[in-house]
Amino acid sequence: MAKGNIITPRTLSGFMELPPQEQVLFERIKATLEDTYQMYGFYPIDTPVLEYSNVLLAKSAGETEKQVYRFNKGDKDLSMRFDLTVPLAKYVAKNYSAITFPFKRYAIGKVYRGERAQKGRFREFYQADIDIIGDGSLSIVNDAEIPSIIYSIFTDLGLSNFTIRINNRKVLNGLFEMNGLDDSATDIMRVIDKIDKIGVDATKAELIEVGVTEEVAATLIDIMTYKDTNANVIAKLEGYKGRSEVFDLGLSELSDVIYYIGKFGVPEENYRIDLSIARGLDYYTGTVYETFVNDHPEIGSVCSGGRYDNLAEYYTKKSLPGVGMSIGLTRFFYILNEYKYLNTKLNSPADVLIIPMTDDMSAAVSISATLRECGIRTQIYMEKKKFKAKITYANKLSIPFAMFLGEDEIAADKVTIKNMITGNQETLDLDAAIDTMVEVLEEMDEESIITK
Amino acid sequence: MAKGNIITPRTLSGFMELPPQEQVLFERIKATLEDTYQMYGFYPIDTPVLEYSNVLLAKSAGETEKQVYRFNKGDKDLSMRFDLTVPLAKYVAKNYSAITFPFKRYAIGKVYRGERAQKGRFREFYQADIDIIGDGSLSIVNDAEIPSIIYSIFTDLGLSNFTIRINNRKVLNGLFEMNGLDDSATDIMRVIDKIDKIGVDATKAELIEVGVTEEVAATLIDIMTYKDTNANVIAKLEGYKGRSEVFDLGLSELSDVIYYIGKFGVPEENYRIDLSIARGLDYYTGTVYETFVNDHPEIGSVCSGGRYDNLAEYYTKKSLPGVGMSIGLTRFFYILNEYKYLNTKLNSPADVLIIPMTDDMSAAVSISATLRECGIRTQIYMEKKKFKAKITYANKLSIPFAMFLGEDEIAADKVTIKNMITGNQETLDLDAAIDTMVEVLEEMDEESIITK
Predict the structure, then answer these.
(1) Final residue before a domain boundary, out of B338, B362, B392
(2) Cα–Cα distance for residue pair A90/A320, rounded to 1 Å
(3) Is residue B343 a part of any domain in this protein?
(4) What is the rounded average pLDDT for all residues in chain A?
(5) B51 with A11: Cβ contact below 8 A
(6) Residue B404: pLDDT above 50?
């Protein structure tokens, strides 16, 4: 194109592109997730954004397929990944002989869905997944580790009033079986999944519609809406034992999971058996989780997952059971930001701005190297601007400290630091200045990213 | 598709997909880059992988455009980003009024180029970029900060025998001007850029081909191949002063950059003026850098960059000068891995594997929570397998410690830890075991990721 023509710099709608200070907060949340996943010994795994369409779409049909970004390049039919689970299945099947099981992996990456654009809906978004994959079998204790990871993440971020709701699909299937409803289990599950949204009456009506008698519908709803301590819910379920093998197995799994979650140190108020959590997907076969922020149930589940029998049945005949969970990171961030729950005090890219007051900046440059060695994120303001412009820069970037280096300071081998929050200003030896700053910065570091 | 049909799980060629242990090493290198960029106070900026084609391809023509993954979705003409510079230009132009300048940003992300597949060439690869963008003007001291960041990264990774070669395009342009060669500057630059590859004689021949006299070609090559200390090279260049304004300006910039790089603490042996570094692109207008691993010049530059006058001339009429550099992270990792330069001792996802020897795993689960609080990456082996299988798991994952929890240990409130590297095994109080492990782990943490 001819020089001088200006193209309007647009970004596609549904593609989150944050201003600098918000991006700092986003990265802090992402880092908390990564740190926690690593603390539990999960491998990081990075798979391509692009895959062969026939590989990526081996399983899916219908709605998902319509949303996929799919195109030809040369003679290849390509698709952009729409989640991180299918690429994981491909990865494990492909690398089966090189992997040691149980295989614990996390992945935080962008996925793509060409959904209808609407506020709070994204076409490019981060998912942050963890999964534990067994070879043939996988201990039920893993199903308790996942909620402990969810708890750890949300607590580290600063949330406390959240509940991980836990259920077991075998318990539900067992209840259906007891009532002669095995064949319509999938339909019933789909109806139950909506109970929080549509309410008891509509659920009952829909259950009757899919062939459940009014009496059984009432029983099912009675059980599924039963809210009590975990121990009492298990006690109630014990009353149904001995009538369905699958129910008994599910109850035993559910009891084990609840027992071990406590051992992981998760407080009772943060996890609760909720028999109405079904999770629509066929994929799940045992434990299922959803996580709700109690003040904002309308947000829906911010972190969901569960146990499945076969990760990769489309790619291998090996039995690869697993358990995992996923956080929709982009949407989660969007909501926190919209509600103004984020700690904007933590949105600076630097801890200190060195402001040289002399033409030669050698002293500033040397000191910057020392500060970075002490772990202090350091910028130097190098432009020839008026003093006010330099201070404005520090303020606009919310940098907590400014350090002035004039001829007097350099001659006396001192530095002047100003705490930009309190306004307090002192001229000190460099070592004393570092101590002063580190103390304040360590306090800031203790603050939560979510202030709610 | 019908269940039971198996799709071969393939990955596209040119798309790096690492085995788990190599991915751990990749993530460590990536984290070193991120940490360093943050230490210098750069903002993280994340832009979409997909953009409007007319926005992304506003500037490019020819070879780049052919390689772009471009397609239609609905009525939109979309392209996948092929570098991180064009998205940055778009971002800065779009958010101009919200940005405080100088704007320091880093970006580490995947980019896409449908190149001819060949060993060591990638179609999806990470770039790790930093740029400092001024509004109208930008101090030359910034041009010295970039090499100090390169130095810091490579040193932190464990490399020492590398050289950042530095030049200034104005010095070259000035030399051409003095010799009446202003018009063929771009052609000459392109020839000179190859001098390391094609040698002096071929360079001379090619210079004559683009219209340089034999005598001038000899002079240019003489200057450009002059190797000496930075001070001596500058002294030699001083001899040409007063004959071209652009030369004098370039020499002044180059002197300032060399002066300040030293102040940043970069040892003299790691940066050298190399007047043959031209960097083919029109884009650069002042300082240019390339970085070479001295034992392997055949790898080419592993980190390049420079100063430019206009970041975003296709999107805005604002003058946005900047300076930056880019590391081709995927290729860099690929080479390090091929040469076996990576420290495989650091490739474990966990620091300790707890091996419960009783049916009830409560003790193991409780202890795991304590270990993680101490910053020890902890896995529990939960599967019912023979003891040998459990130890094999720890060995295969290169986990440095195993912790055994049998009835005796639990009864005595002790744990048995085994150093998997030395084979040393001890039964200790938990606190003492933690101290023992932390000491070893901290030593490991001091080790470099690159062992060369």
Answers:
(1) B338
(2) 12
(3) no
(4) 94
(5) yes
(6) yes
Number of domains in chain A: 2
Considering only the beta carbons, identify the residue of B10, B315, B365 that sits closest to A6: B315
CA-based nearest residue in chain B for residue A69 = B73
Q: Give the residue from B292, B312, B338 where a domain finishes.
A: B338
Give the tokens for residue B23. 């991915």
| Cβ neighbours of residue B232 closer than 8 Å, sequence gap 6 or more | none
Nearest CA in chain A to B142: A382
Between the alpha carbon of residue A326 and those of residues A48, A88, A290, A304, the distances in Å are 18, 13, 10, 6
Taking the C-alpha atoms of residue B370 and residue B403, their distance in angstroms, rounded to an integer, is 13
Domain encompassing residue B222: 20-338
Q: Residue A232 falls within a domain, yes or no?
A: yes
Q: What is the pLDDT averaged over residues A65-92?
A: 95
If one compares A74 and B417, the residue with the highest pLDDT of the two is: B417
Helix (H, G, I), strand (E, B) or coil at B451: coil
Structure tokens at B390: 């459990």
CATH at residue B419: 3.40.50.800
Residues B404 and B266 in one domain: no
Q: A430 and A299 in one domain?
A: no
CB atoms under 10 Å from CB of A87, counted, come to 26
CA angle A65, A122, A60 (to 5 degrees): 15
Q: CATH code at B294?
A: 3.30.930.10
Is the CB of residue B403 less than 8 Å from the CB of residue B433?
yes
Joined tokens for residue A339:
């509600």
Give the pLDDT confidence of B231-241 residue by residue, as tens digits.
Answer: 999 999 999 99
CB contact under 8 A, B49 and A95: no
Same-domain pairing of A114 and A35: yes
Pair B221, B366 in one domain: no
Q: Give long-range contacts, CB 8 A cutoff, 24+ apart: A99-102.
A: A99/B20, A100/B393, A100/B396, A100/B397, A101/A133, A101/A134, A101/A135, A102/A132, A102/A133, A102/A134, A102/A135, A102/A138, A102/A142, A102/B382, A102/B383
Q: How far is A229 from chain B (nearest CA, A)?
A: 21
pLDDT in tens, B86-128: 999 999 999 999 999 999 999 999 999 997 778 888 999 999 9
Classify residue A15: in a domain, yes or no: no
Torsion B356-B361-B362-B365 (CA) sign: positive
Q: Name the DSSP class of B42.
A: P
Q: Do B12 and A94 count as a contact with CB atoms less than 8 A apart? A: no
B309 shares its domain with B379: no
User: Among all residues of chain A, which has the CA nearest to that of B314?
Assistant: A6
State the alpha helices, DSSP H only, in A42-165. 53-56, 63-67, 85-94, 142-157
Q: How far is A198 from chain B (nearest CA, A)?
A: 33
Given an 8 Å threshold on Cβ–Cβ distance, is A69 in contact with B71? yes
Statement: residue A234 has pLDDT above 70 = yes
Across the interface, do B349 and A9 touch by the CB < 8 Å criterion? no
CA distances to A425, B213, B413 from B359, in Å: 61, 87, 17
Domain identity same for B242 and B362: no
> Cβ–Cβ of A379/B263 closer than 8 Å?
no
List the structure tokens of A281: 């997907």
User: Which ipTM did the prediction report?
Assistant: 0.96
Query: Nearest CA to CA, how far is B134 from chain A (Å)?
Result: 9
- Are A429 and A356 in the same domain? yes
Q: Are residues B276 and B316 in the same domain?
A: yes
Is A8 part of a structural domain of the chain? Answer: no
Quick check: A19 and B95 CB within 8 A? yes
Residue range A150-172: average pLDDT?
96
Tokens of residue B445, six digits: 């943490």
**Bridge pairing between strands B43-44 and B103-112:** parallel
- Token pair of A13 as six digits: 């709608």
pLDDT 10s digits, B207-223: 999 889 999 999 999 99
**Per-residue pLDDT averaged across A422-427, rounded?**
97
This prediction has a pTM of 0.96
